[in-house]
Amino acid sequence: MSFAGLNDADVAAALAACTAADSFNHKAFFAKVGLAGKSNDDVKKAFYVIDQDKSGFIEEDELKLFLQNFSASARALTDAETKAFLADGDKDEFAAMIKG
């Protein structure tokens, strides 16, 4: 599954910037892939891609696999990265989190 409208080179660069464990920063990632500049409708679409079970919430196990929404070969987030990401937003705050 991919996010429509994102530049493949931007996505590749953002993924390359966080290949090492504990190097993922969601705000930097969203800015690098171009999601920060997308419309609120595009951001909502991104939320629903990440919300794999369509529960209306993004659970910890879904966030752990967040990078794999952009590339199937991407690594899983570490527990520390996942917890930091989870602590920063929920559905109502997702757009604000992406927009920075």
TrEMBL record:
Keywords: Calcium, Metal-binding, Muscle protein. Ca(2+) binds at residues 51, 53, 55, 57, 62, 90, 92. Pfam families: EF-hand_7. GO terms for molecular function: calcium ion binding. Residues 38-73 form the EF-hand domain. InterPro entries: EF-hand-dom_pair, EF_Hand_1_Ca_BS, EF_hand_dom, Parvalbumin. It comes from the Eukaryota. One of its GO terms (cellular component) is cytoplasm. Belongs to the parvalbumin family. In muscle, parvalbumin is thought to be involved in relaxation after contraction. It binds two calcium ions. This is Parvalbumin. It comes from Oncorhynchus tshawytscha.
